[in-house]
Design a protein that fits this description.
homodimer; alpha/beta; Carbamate kinase; eight-stranded mixed beta sheet; four-stranded antiparallel beta sheet; 26% strand; globular
């Protein structure tokens, strides 16, 4: 038994759906049993959101999930039809039918459980179950969705529960040392660790949803990413690289231009200021990154980054949280990009940070901030410098052919 | 508490959905609690069927229902959003959430039950529940649909279960003495009986789905049909006409051009031939109408009508069923139309059939067959004569102003 997931661009048209059905048929003909998780066709989710906004400028999150979940149901029914048409015993399943329960956080719910018995019983009688990705239900029976890219999470969660392998198919043939659309000569990685993949997927690489990688890591799911449209070999996401493989210091580099830098000047130096502020932001569900503070003349100067889309919420929350204090000011700057290098090899190779900083420095790129983890170094640069910074790192760490 | 139903043309665009929400708001402001049943937006169901046919020439019925049910879910979510946006406590509900169980006959299921407790509990806490029409689930949890026009049935079934009034809104302002698009001066009826409405809706008048009228009659549901787009008074469908109302002999006339006449010649005269044939057709779910037989020279000549769409199935079934016998031949003719006059007053007014036949005769219209019931007279005529036959009847029974 294997779980496969096909992304939106893989099922964008009836012809592509039949193409996916052909691929599945080849596997069934080899005697495999498949659970196939599907996304909504092409840009369907965006169209549905646009429809919702024509009806209500701020749609009810519960109703938005009810609306968006139809996209995956359409694909699952069509793919099951295409399979039946090829003589394969296939059945579509939605979140209700599979008991895919989640927390109640509409538009960004987290999977809690699924009805494994039902899934196994049905799969015993058939060759293929086609399951709606992205959606779940609460214990009260409300429809939820798992947030953008959530179909990856659905697939990995099912694979984790079933203790089987998970294959993620999309229009990208695997994980590369850097985005092949931006770096010519980018190399495809045969293996990458969960930890590296987690840093890469949360850093803006779009191959895999980071929640999916978290779950894969937690349950040691054998994860494989490859192209829907070719048979070339993809990338295995694993716990640790095979020993025979040469361990690179840096496995990949990535940029994220979807960042806003928030600057707060002349904060009073008090622990309660900071805790009030960050509790306020956490309360609104805002992820804060690259926090740095400087103290001068009895004041604090605070900088952090958030994703672009949350800017309005962040500024409002900052103003509310800091209302009891006076004299401070806040500003936001979208003209930034985050460049990062990731590699498990960093742990055992000293001097990687020095090489990283020198590479940017040689190109005259000014760093607005940095953060590091055991396997990652990130720098914030001006958005205009993002591409050049990426090229500098690619050259420095020998990531292109 | 009141059940309302809005048809596809009433919710065809985001603007129209907001318009429906405004109408609902007026009722809520008067303190009413509403269960609102919705159809898919405009031509959505047709588009989904076209999509299915691109994937599979004969889509699996189970998967087709899974696909089509998304149309109503989209509308219910959008209408609930629009209501929430106007400050009304509204919640969308699909067949799963409402426990709307049906028989397992995909694409043409029949409602068996719904979770009344859940509906009442939710409605106690809120003003409006927006429920997906047309869809149900089997006891095993598969998605079913109720056949074309099934949202009327959903609405009436909920009203029957709740013991409340049911209002059906569409782009037609009520039930007329004949189709206002074909007879200028057609009068809107203030009242019509269930029995008359049943004859009219199964005879091709498109105001109400006949299953819905059957259920309304069985449970004496107070049924009201009116326009979504105006406030003019609609039509009440009732058990018997109010006594103060002048009882018309004929309440309405209708034509149905969606009929095929099947002729079978030189059948052996044997009861087992007929029972084999009609059991075969019943086994395929074909509704047969206007059956007539003539015996001549030791053979039977049989004629009956079926709806156009079943022609292929019917001819195949006839050939299979009659295979044990020889010498007969079968042909099908689509060039027919059925014209009918309906009225409870017929029961007590002799000579209505004579007036009906004379009216057609005076226009030189040849009748290919006739059937009558206590409250209905139908004649089969050439399709070209359909319109003129309708006008003859309208004049004869004084149905226009």
């Amino acid at each position: 038994m294997i779980v496969q997931k096909y992304g939106g661009s893989s099922v964008a048209t009836p012809e592509k759906i039949r193409g996916v059905a052909e691929r599945i048929k080849q596997r069934v003909d080899r005697g495999e049993k498949l659970v196939v998780v599907v996304s909504a066709m092409g840009k369907t989710t965006n169209s549905l959101i646009a429809l919702a906004e024509q009806v209500s400028p701020e749609p009810s999150p519960r109703e938005l999930d009810m609306l968006l979940s139809t996209g995956e149901q359409v694909t699952s029914a069509l793919l099951a039809m295409a399979l039946c048409d090829m003589g394969i015993q296939a059945l579509s399943y939605n979140a209700f039918q599979l008991g895919m329960t989640t927390t109640g956080g509409f538009t960004n719910a987290r999977i809690m459980d699924l009805n494994l018995n039902k899934l196994k019983t049905q799969l015993n009688r058939r060759n293929v179950l086609v399951v709606t990705g992205f959606q779940g239900i609460t214990q009260e029976g409300d429809v939820t969705t798992l947030g953008r890219g959530g179909s990856d999470t659905s697939a990995v969660a099912i694979a984790a529960k079933c203790g089987c392998r998970c294959e993620i198919y999309s229009d990208v043939a695997g994980v590369y040392t850097c985005d092949p659309n931006r770096c010519s000569g980018a190399r495809k990685l045969e293996y990458i660790t969960y930890d590296e993949m987690l840093e890469l997927s949360s850093l803006g690489a779009k191959v895999l949803h980071s929640r999916a990688v978290e779950i894969a890591k937690k349950y040691s799911v054998d994860l494989y990413c490859a192209s829907t449209f070719s048979d070339e070999r993809g990338t295995h996401v694993v716990n640790s690289l095979p020993e025979w493989l040469e361990q690179p210091v840096v496995s990949g580099v990535t940029t994220d231009s979807n960042q806003t830098r928030v600057n707060i000047s002349r904060l009073p130096r008090s622990a309660s200021v900071m805790s009030t502020l960050f509790s306020g932001l956490a309360g609104k569900g805002v992820n804060v990154d690259m926090i740095s503070t400087v103290n001068e003349n009895g004041h604090s100067y605070l900088t952090f980054t958030v994703v672009d889309a949350t800017e309005k919420t962040v500024l409002e929350t900052v103003r509310e949280s800091l209302a009891p204090w006076e004299g401070w000011s806040v500003s936001a700057d979208r003209n930034v990009a985050k460049v990062s290098a990731v590699g498990v090899g960093m742990k055992s190779a000293p001097g990687v940070a020095a090489r990283f900083f020198s590479a940017l420095d040689r190109k005259g790129i000014n760093m607005l901030g940095t953060t590091t983890s055991e396997i990652k170094i990130s720098a914030l640069v001006s958005r205009d410098d993002g591409e050049e910074a990426l090229r500098a790192l690619v050259e420095e760490f020998g990531l292109v052919e």
